[in-house]
Amino acid sequence: MQIDPNKFPQTGGKIPNFLKVAPIIIVIFILFLIVAPPFVVIPSGYVGVKLTLGKADMEELPPGLNFIIPAVQRVIKMSVRTQSYDLRGANSINSLSRDGLTINTELTVLYKIMPTKAAEIYVEYGLDYETKIIKPVIRSAVRDVIATLDSSQVYQERELIQKKLMETVSKELEKRYILLDEILIRDIKLPKRVVEAIEQKRRAYEEMQKMKFIVEKEKLEAERKRVEAKGIADANKIIAGSLTKEYLQWKFIENIKAYAQGDNNTVILIPYDQQMTPIINIPNIKK
């Protein structure tokens, strides 16, 4: 940037010293803003913990543009969104059931830190709070819950285990400024022989229930047949009581009429006695 000396007649055409160094000062200032800006931008879903000469300010910085003193203050950005922490594979949890068997549990923890307690978390635990808080709390809770159950209960009562873990872990993490969203049990592994024994017991139980159903069904069918037979017997008694001599004579005459009107009218009528011997119908055989 060139400065015209003719613009300064009061100094005999000489450029003042402060204007000579002004460009240098401006350049230095711009470089300083680039290297050590006096502001920091905190994105949504985060809060800032401001450190002044290494000491944390207990009032968190909200999302947006925040001003700081360069070279004296700096900001640690901490997420307040829901995060997941896996305890699987080498990180899975081994514990003993009430009957002394080793149970391996794999799970995922969904959590978020309290936005107004980020500074306290940073001061007490630093940024590695998953390892220092969540991991030991979860391990302790899983072992305590599994220790109250037999291996067969552990295998069959996953929802119960998850509910107990939620109750215990939620209280413990809240004391440390962390909110628990969910605990997802990924897998519960028991010794193979135990799983086989439980499955065999389950199949035996299902077979027993099936046999009970069949027995009940047969009982109901026998009852139905008994009722049906009694009904038939009662009906026969009623019919037998209504078969008078006059009725049988009338029925005999009706049968004669039916045979006479039919295509086959070759019949033999056997005289009947008081017992009303039945009619014998001999078909018409064509030669």
Automatic annotation (TrEMBL):
Pfam families: Band_7 (PF01145). The keyword Protease applies. It is a single-pass membrane protein. The chain crosses the membrane at residues 21-42. Keywords: Hydrolase, Membrane, Protease, Transmembrane, Transmembrane helix. InterPro entries: Band_7 (IPR001107), Band_7/SPFH_dom_sf (IPR036013), Prohibitin (IPR000163). It comes from the Bacteria. It is found in: Membrane. GO terms for cellular component: membrane. GO terms for molecular function: peptidase activity. The keyword Hydrolase applies. Residues 37-202 form the Band domain. One of its GO terms (biological process) is proteolysis. This is Regulator of protease activity HflC, stomatin/prohibitin superfamily.
